[in-house]
Amino acid sequence: MAERGESGSKVGAEIGLKTGLLDRAGAGLPFALASDQETAWIEVIRKMDEVYADLLRYETELEDKNTALEEAQAFISSVIEAVSDVLIVCDRDGRVLQINPAAMQLLGCRSEDVAQRSLADLLDPADRRQAAALVGAQASSDVVNLEVRFVTAHGPSDLYAVNAATRHDPTGVRVGTVLTARPIGELRRAYEALHAAHSKLQRAQRQLIEQEKMASLGRLVAGVAHELNNPISFIYGNIHTLERYRKRLSNYLQALHGDADAEEIAALRRELRIDALLDDYGSLIEGTLEGATRVSDVVKNLRRLSFSKPGEMQSIDVERVLRTAALWATRAKPGHVALSFDLEPELAVMGHEGQFHQIIVNLIDNAIDAVRGQVAPSITISARRQGDDITITIADNGHGLSEAAIDLLFEPFFTTKPVGEGTGLGLWISYGIAREHGGSLSAANRPEGGAAFVLTLPAG
Ligand SMILES: Nc1ncnc2c1ncn2[C@@H]1O[C@H](COP(=O)(O)OP(=O)(O)O)[C@@H](O)[C@H]1O
Ligand SMILES: [Mg+2]
């Protein structure tokens, strides 16, 4: 400002000097002419003063604007410098106009080194074809997103995600492109590591589910084996007895058709206990047949389980499944548990028999584990019709459910059993099956102690 004041007074002094010269020049003219000329000169000087004052004002305004412009420029520069993303500004033909410090650091050069070079020159040769797409967007709404590598002093850079947006002049004409780029190599590697870990976890989970399936199949097979063992062993016993009877009968028949007399035959009949043998024969055959029927029933139940296709819903006899599942599940585990049934007659559910059986085996299996160590372990299985649903309750007098367990019971992998004994998948799988059937599975502690699991399925 001081400078401007000084220069102002210098110009003023010059004008004053000129005015004085003109005054002297006009001194010899006639009065009227001199006064006219003087008036004109005064007018000129007044105009000049006005113009000069305007000039001064414009100069002040210009300097103010200049300062504002410099401040705005400094602000923009500081923003651009602070941007950690790589920033490249190109003209309409894809020639570089300016790059920010992050770009200089990446490319290992100054902005002026790359100015006017084609954007393609900054990209790794393998990605050069992409340059046209990056600077080719026409409409302002076209934002191009690509992944490229840049050329650096040490070879190709990491992978960068580049975002290219069109740049316009104040009248809206497209004048070029602004590219922002951010390294994604690290992110990509982290993502890939995460993806690999996730896949591994999924594989492990599938394996565990398979293991749980194999374990429940194992329990089923153990139960079935016990269940078959009993009739098969008495069929064996009966057949051995029948074989002994056959030999005695054969001896007796030989004596009968040989040359033995009646007395000898009567003695032999007493000795071989032929009459007792004949009395026993009927019940032996009956017992063997009963054993065979039990074996055949077990096989029929097994076939029902294994031949019903998943997703194929059918009406299932609730009592039959509850009794077989309970029998097989208890047979599969050591120790005695008192099982009692409280079932409304002729209940049926709609569902897949194998899966329904699997839920019941899982629930009874857990109940057997829970009652272990109780003085009089017992499990009660009841079933009722409630409207359109059948409600099956499996109640035990075991240790019950802790607060934490109640919240987590149906979560996969929740188990309180030692490693190798529990997978924590039984209830999760059972819950899923119940939901797929349009039913539900819930659990609560009983007021008298122990837990009760309630399975609801649509009536069939
Ligand atoms: N009848 C029950 N009484 C008490 N706790 C139970 C009962 N049933 C299940 N639980 C609890 O729920 C957990 C999860 O059961 P489950 O999903 O079948 O897995 P797992 O039997 O392999 O542990 C069990 O470890 C146990 O803590
Ligand atoms: Mg279980």
From TrEMBL:
Single biological process term from Gene Ontology: regulation of DNA-templated transcription
UniProt catalytic activity: ATP + protein L-histidine = ADP + protein N-phospho-L-histidine
Entry-linked Gene3D superfamilies: 1.10.287.130, Histidine kinase-like ATPase, C-terminal domain, PAS domain
Keyword Phosphoprotein listed: yes
PANTHER family xref list: SENSOR HISTIDINE KINASE (PTHR43065), TWO-COMPONENT SENSOR PPRA (PTHR43065:SF42)
Protein name: histidine kinase
The Histidine kinase domain, residue ranges: 223-460
Gene Ontology molecular function terms on file: ATP binding; phosphorelay sensor kinase activity
EC top class named in words: transferase
EC code(s) of this entry: 2.7.13.3
Segments forming a coiled coil: 187-214
Spans traversing the lipid bilayer: none
Organism of origin: Rhodopseudomonas faecalis
InterPro entries with a match to the protein in the record: HATPase_C_sf, HATPase_dom, His_kinase_dom, HisK_dim/P_dom, HisK_dim/P_sf, PAS, PAS-like_dom_sf, PAS_fold
Keywords: ATP-binding, Coiled coil, Kinase, Nucleotide-binding, Phosphoprotein, Transferase, Two-component regulatory system
SMART domains on file: HATPase_c (SM00387), HisKA (SM00388), PAS (SM00091)
Pfam families given in the database record: HATPase_c, HisKA, PAS
Residue ranges occupied by any PAS domain in the UniProt entry: 72-128
